[in-house]
Amino acid sequence: MLTKIPHRMLVSTAMLIALGALRFEQSAAADSKVKLPNLLPIPNSSGASATFSQGDISLDGPFFQSLGTNGRSCGTCHQAAEGWSFSAQGVRQRFNATAGMDPIFRTNDGSNCNTSDVSTPAARQQAYSLLLNKGLIRVELPVPATAEFAVTTVVAPYGCNSTANVSVYRRPLPATNLRFLTTVMWDGRESVAGNTLRQNLLQQALDATLGHAQGISLSDADRSDIVDFEMSLATAQISDNGAGKLDNEGAGGGPQKLHGQQFFVGINDPLGGNPTNAPFDPTAMTMFKSWANGHGQQSEARMSVARGEVLFNTKPISITGVAGLNDALNAPVIPGTCTTCHDSPNVGNHSVPLAINIGVSDVSRPENADLPVFTLMNLTTHQTVTTTDPGRALITGKWRDIGKTKGPVLRALASRAPYFHNGSAATLMDAVEFYNTRFTLGLTAQEKTDLVNFLSVL
After folding, report:
1. Contact status, residue 413 vs residue 419, Cβ threshold 8 Å
2. Which candidate, 299, 282, 398, places its Cα nearest to that of 334?
3. Which residues lie below 8 Å from residue 9, measured CB to CB, with a gap of 6+?
4. pLDDT of 253-262, one tens digit each?
């Protein structure tokens, strides 16, 4: 039986209901709290994802409450059905269901510019085009007063052409699997040196309420409750349309296994940051090795996943032109694999804070044609560069940080397309093809398919 949903929760649960994926359980408690059953499979295009916690997942705490002035909650942009982020497809469904009036459609950061016309459904369709097509939220950041550069021009078709307060467009990161984070936010702006992860997340919860929800303040109790809730969640794909359950035949997929995954800052760091001094192991992904010689009805799909995992661990990559790696190590070419950067075991993010630029924001990439173009000039050398996102440089003011972002956790990917910080890869195949062309990998059609099949079960 579907429990009556409090009005304040309609935003955070609407997509779950629309997908036919969620049945709320009536709590035995007198206050009839609404809960997401633990490990409930939630369908997506590849199979189903699920979230694991130590008990049923309460959906009526501050995370799901409108604590600002524009109707949004944390759950507005962090949907359980979409990997605790949101997908572009899900945003389009919300637009169609509400004619663009769902709380995610707000001009403070959801529209292409805060001056966009949103007076009619047709105007809203245009105003929120980046949100609808790529799942992008506008982030306005000032150029640091001590920056080594100036933003000299901004070419943007949507307005928001300021060179002092720069509007960039980014995907919302998942509000799950947070215990694996070494950097909070794509550009690290919520990671303060010397702070614990919890301290940084507490500040991020406040800043999100003040900014995204246009709030006034947030109590210490609500901040703590939000962070406790986020830190309790582990989310991953639990089943695959072809391979079946992801913990069968000795496999280690699914959120329950992820919940128990060992992690500490520096674990398996290829740059020597492991506090235990253990050597780097490029075989960072080990969940599906038991499927290498699959059998039964799902053998073909399972062997493809296992091959993709091996490729992820072992396919040679000549890493070149990556700011934050090649320049930092004074090495024009670094021999590596996918796990050189995606090194956290069975998680896939950086195990240490590492901002790098692999070229996702390059102006030359055709998939970035709908993004603004920024020209930055070095105040000392007068050198200029163009980019669609200055990245971490807008936080540090450092010329060397232009275009740098962190690598995200690579779990529950199938629920939250598109990919990369700017949504430039519409599918996992697009993401694989980016790396194939960027680093001249020479992947065969079968290797691409195997990699996609592996990434889709994470």
Report:
1. yes
2. 282
3. 34, 59, 60, 64, 73, 75
4. 999 999 999 9
